[in-house]
Amino acid sequence: MRKITFNFKNLVVCLFLVLSLFLSAQETTFVPQKYTPTEPGCVLPVGEFEGLVSVPRALETEAKMKAGATPCATFVVNYTGFTPEAQAAFQFAVDIWANSIDSPVPINVNATFSSLDPGVLGSAGPATFLTSSASGSQPNIFYPAALWEKLEGADRGQFGGTNDINANFSSDTNWYYGTDANPPSDQIDFVTVVLHELGHGLGFTGFADLTESFPDDIGAVRETNNNIPAIYDTFTENGSGSAILSFPDPSAALGTELVSNDLYINAPTSVTQFGQGGTLPQIYAPATFNGGSSIYHWNTPSFPIENINSLMRHQVGAGSANHNPGPITLGLFQDMGWSICSGALSVEDITVSNVSISPNPFRSSISINLSNGFNNDYEIGLFDINGRLIFENKKTIENGTIFIANLDQLEDAIYFLKVTNETTGTSIVKKVIKN
Ligand SMILES: [Zn+2]
C-alpha cells in the first residue's frame, strides 16, 4: 500500500512537470505559417524599343562596388546553365542589390539559364512565404523568405528549406552582357533584367489573381489556402483611398479593383521618395488582368523609361538599361521591413551629386556641403522614418555650405534629409541619424 502511494505521488509530480514544460513551450515557440508558390511572381516579357536610355547605378553604389567595400547583404547564388559572361553580369546585378538592402542573413538564390517561352526574358519570385513574430513584423502577413530571415535575424532552416529566391532567365534572348548600362538598340540589357527579377524575389510581389466568372470576374488578393496577404498588398489602395485589403476577398468588387487602372502604393517612405507632394506612385493594373504582370509593377505611363524608378515596370525593351533599384522601390522595401543600405535611398543628379553631410550622426546642427559651385536657393526637408515631414526650410547656399541649427529638441532617431535645388528641381535624400 505504501509503495502504491509513493508511485502515485511521483506520477503526479512527473505529470505536473511535463505539463509545465509543455505550456512554457507553447508560450515561447512560434511556428510560422508557410506558403510555397508554384508559379513565379513575375513573368517578364520583352518590350518595345523606347530609345537608347541609360540609368546608371546610384553613385554611392558605384563607389562602393569600385572600392570593393563590404556590401550590406550577402547573396549566395546557385547557378545552373549559365555561360561565364551571363554569370558575370548576373553577379554585377547581385552586387547592386547587395549594396542597396541590408540583411544579417545570407540570401540564397537558385538561378537557371535555359530556354523559356518565346518572348519571355525571365521570371522570378520568392521560394516561399512565411508569417513572422519578429519585432518590426506584422502578424498574420506573409513575408517573402529573404525578408522573413532579415526580420527574424535567422535562417529559416528549422522550418524547412534554404533557398529564398527562384529566378529563371532565357538563354535564347539577344542579351547585352556589358555592365556599363549602354546596350545597343538591338540587345536587351541582362543586368537590368536580373536586377528586376531579383526585386520580385526580394518582395515586390503578392498573390493578387483574377478568375474568369460570369457575370463578373472574381478577384482575390490573399493566398487562398491560408487566407493571408503578402506584405506588399498591405500598402495597395485605390484612387479613392480604399485599401485593397478592405474589399471582400474573393469578390467581384475586388476583381473590378484589380483591373481599374487606378491602384497606388501608399507606403510612407515610398511616397516621400516619390516626392510629388504626397501624390501616391501608381502601380500597373491594366483593364485586362495579366498574371505575372498586373499589380506587381509600377505603372508604365507614370514612370517613363528614363525615370530613375523605371526598373520595376512590366516589360523591358532593347536599348534601355536601368541599374538602379529606384528610390520609390527602395522606400517601399523599407516600409515592408527591409533595412536600406546607407546611401542607397537617394535620388542623385549631377548638380547635387557631391553632397556631404556632417556630422552624421548629429546632435544640434547639420552642415550640408554642396561642392557644385552654384549659389542657388535650396529647400530643406527633414522626414522621419514614417515619411512624416518634421520641418522644412528655404536656405541659400553660402560658400558651398548650408547650415541648419537648433536641432537639439529632435528625438534620437533615423531621419531622411531631402535637399532640393529650387531652380532645377533636382533633389537628393540622405539618411541622417540623431543621437
Ligand atoms: Zn517583373
- Write down the Rg: 25 Å
SS content category = alpha+beta
Number of strands: 26
Hetero groups: zinc ion
How many helical stretches? 8
Number of domains: 2
Q: How do the strands line up in the largest sheet? A: 4-6-10-7-2-17
β-strand percent reads: 25-35%
Describe this structure in words.
- It is a single chain.
- Helices cover 22% and strands 26% of the residues.
- The protein is an alpha+beta fold and 435 residues long.
- It has two domains: 34-340, no CATH class; 350-433, Sandwich (Immunoglobulin-like).
- Strands 4-6-10-7-2-17 form a six-stranded mixed β-sheet, covered by helices on one side. It has a four-stranded antiparallel β-sheet with strand order 23-22-25-26, with no helix packed on it.
- Bound molecules: zinc ion.
- Zinc ion binds at residues 42, 44, 196, 200, 297.
Summed up, what is this model?
The protein is α+β, with helices and mostly antiparallel strands and 435 residues long.
Task: Identify the notable features of this structure and list them briefly.
alpha+beta, globular, 6-stranded mixed sheet, 4-stranded antiparallel sheet, 435 residues, 26 strands, binds zinc ion
Topology of this structure?
Blueprint: H1 2-28, E1 34-35, E2 42-47, E3 53-55, H2 59-67, E4 75-80, H3 84-98, E5 101-102, E6 107-114, E7 120-126, E8 129-130, E9 143-144, H4 145-152, E10 165-170, E11 175-176, E12 188-189, H5 190-202, E13 209-211, E14 218-220, E15 236-238, H6 252-258, E16 263-265, H7 268-274, E17 316-317, E18 320-322, H8 327-336, E19 339-340, E20 355-358, E21 366-370, E22 377-384, E23 389-396, E24 401-404, E25 414-421, E26 427-433
Parallel strand pairs: 2-17, 3-18, 4-6, 6-10, 11-12
Antiparallel strand pairs: 1-8, 2-7, 5-19, 7-10, 8-9, 13-14, 15-16, 20-21, 21-24, 22-23, 22-25, 25-26
The structure holds zinc ion (ZN).
Zinc ion binds near residues 42, 44, 200 and 297.
